[in-house]
Design goal:
The protein is built from 15 helices and 12 strands. The chain has helices spanning 11-17, 20-36, 64-85, 88-99, 103-112, 141-147, 163-166, 169-179, 194-211, 233-243, 252-258, 291-302, 311-316, 319-325, 328-331; strands at residues 2-3, 40-42, 50-52, 61-62, 127-133, 149-156, 220-225, 247-250, 259-261, 267-269, 272-279, 306-308. Strands 7, 8, 9, 10, 11 and 12 form a 6-stranded mixed sheet that branches. The chain has a two-stranded parallel sheet with strand order 1-4. The relative contact order is 0.15.
């Protein structure tokens, strides 16, 4: 991410527009840089083969001040969504209409109503999406960035991807910029959140271990729930490796076949105890191939393991809830008056 304090590179866009051969060569540099840094997706056809992820040639231009305002707001959004997720009446009433015609939401609500959310520890990685907004269409792009502000589009509450891959994007862009003989992006503008993700999983593991001390020699592990045909493995692995935790990667189907709850509600699988469940699947109807997968999700949610996210947090992220929160009389119930 380049900010308005470093506009020296902006001229290169015009140079690239006029030189298709240069664009082609720079594209190869970007793809090779991405591949060498692990920005890869599994090939959908060839086993154990990888493809570079799509990347931009250059970093995005943005306003440092505007981004700072968004970052300052995020803790309040996090707290807002947590409060909403624990308001059972509001959540169930707001989703009652859509759940009557949407089996996916109905199934999640069914699990939500069988779990004592307030008695559980929770972890969530929350991402707010924004678009640049400017009321003056006559401005150039640079002037629009200077004059504009960022407007929230949505809040994502489950399976937030690319914390790992995005941590390498500064290096990709800087290799491209070096090739173009431009100024590189300073480290403070990189936006690397990977240490936060890994650190949060490790912290959650510590919270679990303190409240549920290990018994015997059974290890307490991180369980990443994945798609049977997962392609975004590198991104997920970067987060797992950053946490430093022993990690199992299993599908809903595998968990359903192998996992049990003991009398204390501990989630046990393959001789190990699950301290933290990290969902990288479960946000779309096709992820639940059968009723057995839904039973597995319920088993996990009933367990003592810390869920990232819990079913409550997931439900709070549906568009219907965000529609309700766009009404000031609803929003004010969940926002501290001093912060509103």
């Amino acid at each position: 991410m380049a900010d308005l304090r470093t506009l020296a590179n902006f001229h290169v866009i015009e140079t690239l527009k006029k030189n298709p051969k240069l664009v082609e060569e720079v594209s190869e540099v970007a793809k090779d840089a991405a591949s060498s840094l692990g920005l890869l997706l599994k090939d959908p056809v060839i086993a154990d083969a990888f493809l570079p992820v799509p990347v931009t040639l250059l970093p995005s231009l943005t306003s440092h001040h505007a981004v700072h305002e968004v970052l300052q707001l995020q803790p309040e959004i996090n707290l807002l969504m947590h409060r909403v997720s624990h308001d059972r009446n509001f959540l169930t009433q707001s989703l009652a209409g859509v759940s009557s015609v949407d089996p996916f939401i109905k199934s999640l609500l069914n699990i939500y109503n069988q779990v004592d959310i307030d008695a559980q520890w929770e972890l969530d990685f929350i991402r707010s999406d924004y678009l640049l907004h400017c009321n003056d269409p006559t401005l150039s792009f640079v002037d629009a960035v200077k004059a504009g502000s960022y407007k929230q589009v949505e809040v994502n509450m489950i399976c937030i991807a690319f914390a790992g891959l995005s941590s390498r994007m500064q290096d990709v862009h800087n290799r491209v910029l070096n090739f173009l003989e431009c100024d590189v992006v300073p480290a403070e503008n990189a936006g690397d959140v990977l240490p936060l993700y890994g650190g949060a999983l490790k912290l959650a593991h510590g919270v679990y271990s303190k409240n549920f001390p290990a018994t015997g020699k059974r290890q307490q592990v991180l369980l990443t729930v994945i798609h049977p045909e997962e392609r975004n493995t590198m991104d997920q692995r970067m987060v797992e490796f950053e946490s430093g935790l022993l990690c199992l990667r299993r599908t809903f189907q595998q968990i359903g076949e192998r996992a049990t709850l003991d009398e204390e509600g501990r989630l046990l699988i393959e001789g190990l105890e699950v301290a933290v469940v990290y969902y990288r699947v479960g946000y779309a109807p096709p992820h639940y191939a059968s009723d057995k997968d839904w039973e597995t999700r319920l088993l996990i949610e009933k367990s003592s393991a810390i869920k990232c996210p819990s079913v409550a947090h997931q439900l709070s992220g549906f568009k219907k809830i965000q529609q309700e929160l766009s009404r000031p009389e609803v929003l004010v119930k969940y926002v501290e008056q001093t912060n509103s």
